[in-house]
Amino acid sequence: MGKKTKTNAAVAPIFRNRADKGLTRAADQHESETDSEASDTDKNPYNLNPVARGHLKGLLHDIKSNMAAELAKHMARIRESLEDLTRRTLAVEYKMDDISTTTAIQELCGQGNVQQRITRSTSG
């Protein structure tokens, strides 16, 4: 009996080390599988099949295109309104109805010669 106890006591650490190594390998393998699943989940968070993902990507592209077109329309309207407002402001301020948008913008920026034209037209 004494020999068995000594043998078991001597052998037990070897098995324990092997078991620890086996658990470590299993844990490492589980972590690597979890990492690969996480990267797949990042790409496809709702686990959709490829056909459904394709349809959703197409719909998203269409929505983005429509939104860009609508935004461009609104920006063009805003730009036209600002140009019209600029022309009207200068027409009222300088009593000029035939002022162009470029001239109006230059005048508002301090680079125009509208004031000189008005001075010449009123003095002459």
TrEMBL record:
Basic and acidic residues compositional bias, start-end: 17-33
Region (Disordered): 1-50
Domain of life, per lineage: Eukaryota
Name listed for the protein in its UniProt record: Uncharacterized protein
